[in-house]
Design goal:
alpha+beta, 5 strands
């Protein structure tokens, strides 16, 4: 399973302050998980932020032959994008996928029979600075309730 984990000082500071006040973070964590999942969806929609590497010519040819081209990168069937889940409780917020092939698509590497095919990294399970800012702002608003 691939998960998004936030290790950001600003977010941790807000969480520490909320916990210090004894606040129930369940609603805020639910919103944070939603922001994370929305960010991943945006990565799929925009084909990366920044843009992912293009598909290999052989991949484009194979997809065209099966009627799956033109199309979006990492969305031949849509099952990877559809597999993104969110979960949360009072102490954590997560977005992730349970697709076995997600890691090779996200991190890149050697794949296929004999690991002869190089798949470039196309990081879809990531947050951009503006996504982090949304999470910080949401916790700030929750803190001032």
């Amino acid at each position: 399973m691939i998960e998004i984990r936030i290790d950001d000082a600003a977010v941790r500071a807000k969480l520490t302050e909320l916990m210090r006040r004894g606040m129930d973070l369940t609603p805020a964590m639910r919103k944070a998980a939603g922001i994370m999942a929305d960010a991943v969806e945006e990565n799929f929609d925009q084909e990366g932020r920044p843009k992912w590497p293009s598909l290999a010519a052989a991949t484009i040819k194979a997809r065209a032959k099966t009627g799956n081209w033109p199309g979006k990168i990492l969305q031949r069937s849509g099952s990877l994008a559809a597999s993104i889940t969110r979960s949360s409780d009072a102490h954590q917020a997560m977005a992730g996928t349970n697709k076995v092939y997600a890691a090779i698509q996200h991190f890149g590497g050697k794949a296929g029979r004999g690991h002869k095919v190089t798949i470039p990294a196309r990081p879809f399970m990531k947050l951009e600075e503006d996504d982090m800012a949304k999470i910080v702002k949401m916790f700030e608003e929750y803190l001032t309730k």
